[in-house]
Design brief:
This protein has 257 residues and is mainly alpha-helical. It has twelve helices and no strands.
Length: 257
Amino acid sequence: MNRYKPRTVMNTKFDTRPVVLSAILLLSAAFPLLAQITPTQRLTAAFALEREGKPEPATVELQALLHSNSLNAVDSGKAWNILGLAYEDMGKFSLSQHAYEESLRILEGLPDNIQDYAMALNDFGGLYVTTGQFEIADKMRTKALGIYEKVEDHGGIARTCGDLAGVAFSQKKVASGSKYLERAVKEVRLANDLEGDDRVAIASLQGWKAQLDGDFTMSAVRYRQALDLSKRLHGEEHPSTGWGYLLLGEAMLKQAS
């Protein structure tokens, strides 16, 4: 079982404050022709839906936005990337792959948005982790890491190192994964754009590492930390929280055996 859900560490840079997004969604539904509901705001709302574990309505809005041709090139690339995430969450892997490829095609031609390209590379790597193609995932995420290092984006480095640790741990490469995780923790201290979900992911990875090391007591401690953070961020009815309960429960069972 893949114990790491990097989807909680989405690195698309939007304002996702719940009150703002709820207002956008309500206004969009009630007054779809209001000029003040901009395409970028609609994209932000669609991203929020994906983050809240609602990929189906997110795909509807993203497809409508892309078909409307109302997004600029950067936002189009981001929209395709989020669509890739949503389709992946729905288990529609061929559609997810197509969406990621479109995102990379668009963003690769925008040299002023190299971090968005790195983001799409890293997220695309997540699809290959999901489908068990770890070598491809590692190559894509290593390339993304190199881009983030080039521009000294500590938040991007932290997220990508965490995701590379997840790739390594999925293959039981504990030493390699531990190095990536150690660096991710260091980069977290230097970053100023990390969110609560990033810290959930780091704690979850630390729990996974401890479990692979056979330290089930520490594994339970870290998984509980990740679960408590997720509950504070998202409440009980969220995929990240449910996943946290599953991991903590398994760690506690092994601790007791």
